[in-house]
Amino acid sequence: MYSSFQLAKKYVQYYATASNSRGHGVHSPFVFDFIIHVLNDKKSYDCYEKIEDLRRELLNNKSEIEVEDFGAGSSVIKNKTRAIDKIASSSLKPKKYAQLLYRIVKYYQPETMLELGTSFGITASYLASGNEHAKLYTLEGAESIANIAKEQFTKSALKNVELITGSFDKTLPLLFSSVKQIDLAFVDGNHRKIPTLEYFAQILNKSKSSSIIIFDDIHWSAEMEDTWATIQQHPSVTLSMDLFFIGLVFLDPDFKVKQQFKIRF
Question: What share of the chain is helix, strand, coil (3-state, %, to 5)?
Answer without folding.
Answer: 45, 15, 40
